[in-house]
Write a sequence for this structure.
């Protein structure tokens, strides 16, 4: 079934989504996207349902044909305010950048999931699995995912022991073997359980 263009018609509507909530390391990234009226794409979908090559191709299309912005919250911020609040803050920052970049404030915001906080006085709607239903949320999910993957791949060059170029900071066996071997680094989220209790050696 093709994705829907808008939840509310005749409205400047921004879709938001995040990437990296379940990771042990790295920032959480968020995208905000406004889909133009004539935008069409038959491949566009939830980023988790797309191949790496399709995500990369769609990122280029989205960045060339929509109004978009990407922002993040650092591991230190995640530790300070918790991952849910950091995810929402990253979305708010993406919306700030979107407004600044295009001098256009959305009139309505649709968000993947079931939790969000008011962004100024702009009405918002949370939609569970919205990244598989609405074009703007799907586009935001792709931008958040691809920008975050790029960030973690670049970090891998400095911290190859964690294999971030493959796991992107998620809690894989290889990642946890790296933590067990050399300990955590500044990019790890200290408020997360980095190792199961029986493996904590540092």
């Amino acid at each position: 079934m093709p994705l829907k263009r808008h939840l509310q018609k005749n409205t400047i509507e921004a879709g938001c989504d995040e990437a990296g909530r379940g990771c042990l390391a790295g920032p959480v990234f968020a995208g905000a996207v406004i889909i133009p009226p004539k935008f069409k794409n038959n491949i566009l979908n939830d980023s988790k349902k797309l191949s790496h090559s399709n995500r990369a191709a769609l990122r280029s299309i989205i960045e060339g044909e929509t109004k978009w912005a990407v922002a993040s919250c650092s591991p230190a911020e995640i530790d300070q305010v918790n991952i849910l609040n950091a995810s929402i803050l990253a979305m708010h920052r993406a919306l700030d950048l979107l407004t600044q970049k295009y001098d256009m404030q959305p009139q309505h915001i649709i968000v993947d999931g079931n939790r969000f906080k008011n962004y100024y006085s702009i009405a918002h709607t949370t939609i569970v699995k919205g990244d598989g239903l609405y074009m703007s949320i799907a586009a935001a999910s792709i931008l958040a995912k691809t920008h975050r993957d790029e960030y973690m791949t670049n970090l891998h060059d400095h911290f190859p022991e964690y294999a971030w170029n493959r796991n992107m900071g998620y809690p894989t066996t290889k990642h946890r073997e790296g933590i067990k071997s050399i300990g955590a680094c500044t990019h790890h989220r200290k408020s997360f359980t980095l190792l199961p209790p029986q493996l904590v050696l540092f």
